[in-house]
Amino acid sequence: MAGPRPVVFSGPSGAGKSTLLKKLMKEYENVFGFSVSHTTRKPRPGEENGKDYHFVTREAMQAAINNGEFIENAEFSGNMYGTSKAAVQAVQAKNLICILDIDMQGVKNIKKTDLNPIYISIQPPSMETLEKRLRDRKTESEESLQKRLNAAKVDIEFSKEPGVFDVIVINDSLEDAYERLRQALLGVS
Ligand SMILES: Nc1ncnc2c1ncn2[C@@H]1O[C@H](COP(=O)(O)OP(=O)(O)OP(=O)(O)O)[C@@H](O)[C@H]1O
Ligand SMILES: Nc1nc2c(ncn2[C@@H]2O[C@H](COP(=O)(O)O)[C@@H](O)[C@H]2O)c(=O)[nH]1
Questions:
Q1: What is the pLDDT of residues 134-175, one digit of tens each?
Q2: Per its record, what are the GO molecular function terms (predicted)?
């Protein structure tokens, strides 16, 4: 795919990917653009269709996958998620650096494509902190929270595999983590 090298953000649910990438895109709005994924999960308060996600039904998403419209897709915590070719192309057409926020399965699948992104893992300082942040976010049912915490344990181990990620940022203090991210991506602090 043409254009500057995309950036993949991955890491456990609740690690702080959205928080960090929103901060980055606010500061560098003419540099980065977000690849708006599709999902079958219900919108959270404040989330906008077409901005945070394309919120779709399972039937519509499966039909689009079958039609070859997705670069990757995955089932996570009981919902479908996926990156459409159109989402990435829309960012690249503006000559912006495309940012993808995807789970571990997405990382594995993107590695089989020719997208060639920089892979960044955002990790929590501990499982206890992760659980607290997810609970305090108040977006998940107990069932969804437990699924996300179980997935997080696998994700944390995956992130330790040599060569999977180019950069690992531990999101302890938000300001410190942001500075490390900015340094890694732009060489500025
Ligand atoms: N460094 C931090 N210190 C304290 N709280 C934080 C920090 N970073 C993020 N948070 C908070 O933790 C919660 C989870 O962050 P966020 O939603 O960005 O995670 P995420 O990795 O994008 O999760 P998901 O994968 O579920 O979308 C949010 O309520 C956010 O405000
Ligand atoms: N494989 C993909 N994973 C995705 C995509 N968009 C988001 N995600 C990941 O899903 C979980 C949960 O997100 P949430 O918004 O419900 O909290 C998180 O880890 C995201 O990174 C995608 O297109 N493909």
A1: 999 999 999 999 999 999 999 999 999 999 999 999 999 999
A2: ATP binding; GMP kinase activity
Residue bearing tokens 């901060």: 23
Indicate which atom in ligand 1 lies nearest the CA of residue 171. Answer: 1
Instruction: Respond yes or no: is residue 44 known to be catalytic.
Output: yes
Euclidean distance between CA atoms 21 and 124, whole angstroms: 15
Predicted ipTM of the assembly: 0.99
Burial of 10 (0-12, 13-18, 19+ CB in 10 A): buried
182 is catalytic: no
Size (the chain), residues? 189
Q: What is the CA(36)–ligand 1 centre distance, in A?
A: 18
Give the Å distances, CA to CA, from 15 to 2, 95, 122, 131, 148. Answer: 30, 29, 6, 9, 11
DSSP notation for 39-100? E-SPPPTT--BTTTBEE--HHHHHHHHHTT-EEEEEEETTEEEEEEHHHHHHHHHTTPEEEE
108 lines ligand 2 (CB under 6 A): no
pLDDT in tens, 2-34: 568 999 999 999 999 999 999 999 999 999 999
CB atoms within 10 A of CB 117: 22
